[in-house]
């Protein structure tokens, strides 16, 4: 008999695996709607949608394995990273989806959110002031105008599956929409700077590495407190706090 495996769970959403089926339960129905729409539009491999009802989405498992995970070694070869870069470029070259995504927030609002979060990180004693100040300076380079593209919006390394050197699918599209291409590249390489060159080689165009590094700092500053409050450990080796420390 297949067991029920909890893949990830917190107060906003949970993902369960039963055999070759993943069940995504989300308190926000809009995120499920975005995910289903984005997978239908994306010109890259995505999981098969088996069915979806209010607050639940059932998708089929993908072949292969993730290219790696944050805080752990990458199991993907340089060619697999280049293939991921080529798939991301194909997504970014596609026609724009109808709505803004997680990577498409207003620059002024994003800067204000970042400043508020930096203040809370220091006030609550989560991170030292010098670490926050330095990374806030680095993050400034990401706060610039960009031309919107079709972005995944939460392109963590664990969301891309490969079989050998071939991308077999990309999962978790609930933040997809119009956004900054370099945010996707930064999210994918967070904690794996050693593979940035392989990814950009596959992506096939010049990418501003300073902006990608700025997004590493910005994303990490924004999520440390949330992760800490929802049962995750951003202080684990190779994770968000180590990313911040690497900018010092």
TrEMBL record:
Entry GO MF terms: transferase activity
Keyword Transferase in record: yes
Stored Pfam families: APH (PF01636)
UniProt keyword terms in alphabetical order: Transferase
Domain Aminoglycoside phosphotransferase: 41-211
SUPFAM superfamilies linked: Protein kinase-like (PK-like) (SSF56112)
Gene3D superfamilies (UniProt xref): 3.90.1200.10
InterPro entries assigned: AGP_Transferase (IPR051678), Aminoglycoside_PTrfase (IPR002575), Kinase-like_dom_sf (IPR011009)
Highest taxon, organism lineage: Bacteria
Entry protein name: Phosphotransferase
